[in-house]
Amino acid sequence: MNTDSSQDIPRKLAASQGLQWVVAGFRLYRKNPLLLSAAFAVLFGTVMGLGLIPVVGGPLSELASPLMVAGFMAAYRALDSGRELGLPQFFAGVQGPAIPLMTVGAVQLLGTLLISQVMLGMGFDPQALMAAAQSQQKDPAQMQAILNQSMPALLTGLALFTPLIMATWFAPALILFGGARPATALGVSFKAVIKNWAAMLVNGLALGLLLFVAALVPLLLGLLVAMPVLFGSLYASYQAIFAVWADEGL
After folding, report:
1. Which one of 108, 195, 196, 208 has the largest count of C-beta atoms within 10 Å of its C-beta?
2. Residue partners of 56: CB distance under 8 A and separation at least 6
3. Burial of 97 (0-12, 13-18, 19+ CB in 10 A)
4. Model confidence over 140-158: pLDDT tens digits?
């Protein structure tokens, strides 16, 4: 890894930076809100559409998701650099390091499948939980029994998903901007989140509140704003932590 000798990369930043990243993401979003929201609608719709394909849809959707993230990272870099935003930026992942990005998607897919199997092995029954929650004649005792049965598996799933999310959070940006190999990107991303756990916690809480409020808007139209802002926040946090990062030997 080549870095400026005066910098410690990934940088460790104050917890308050977590909120500043959301503010910065919103400021970048305001530079071209219509195109960013429209691009999210199209790209997210495409990824979700892939998921509807029988048998192979789920894996294809998971493999494609880092390509979408990379596209938004390229779009926000263009805006941040004062360049005009256009459709080519949103396809930066497809036109560039597609295989490394899809490798990250494969890691996400494999990790999700393994964690799901662990949760099912612990007695987690998502269909029973959904049926009880949607039942017209709710039985509090039955619902409590299902929750009691599911809670150990849910807590275990949360504990296992957390490191997976940490490893993949910055990986697409590291691959696109830093030329990182997939394994390196996953490791460096994990290190960065650990190093900035306080800022990442504040950032996660702020983004969670934003997504919750957005979900209250009819037809989920609020997500057309909230999700691009989330990607803007991700870009801002990458810039703050990794600005001069580059994988050695590339």
Report:
1. 196
2. none
3. buried
4. 777 777 777 788 999 999 9
**118: its two tokens:** 């662990």
Report the pLDDT value the prediction gives residue 16, as an integer from 0 to 100. Answer: 95
The three-point CA angle 202-243-227 to 5° equals: 45
pLDDT of residue 199: 97
Q: Residue ranges of the domains in the chain? A: 17-242
- The two tokens of residue 17 are 């930076």
Distance CA 71, CA 59 (A): 19
The pTM score is 0.88
**DSSP secondary structure string for all residues of 36-61:** HHHHHHHHHHHHHHHHTSTTTHHHHH
CB atoms within 10 A of CB 9: 17
**Distance, CA of 187 to CA of 166 (rounded, Å):** 9
**Number of residues written out for the chain:** 250
Place of tokens 């005009």: 84
Two structure tokens written together for 65 = 């998701």
Contact yes or no for 67/44 (Cβ under 8 A): no
Q: Is residue 169 a contact partner of residue 161, using CB atoms and an 8 Å limit?
A: no
* Burial category of 112 from C-beta neighbours within 10 Å (exposed 0-12, middle 13-18, buried 19 and up): middle
Alpha carbon separation from 87 to 35, 61, 148, 157 (Å, rounded):
9, 21, 49, 37
Q: What is the mean pLDDT of residues 179-194?
A: 96
Q: Check if the beta carbon of residue 71 is closer than 8 Å to that of residue 91.
A: yes
**For 213-232, how does the pLDDT look when each residue is reduced to its tens digit (9 = 90+)?**
999 998 889 999 999 999 99
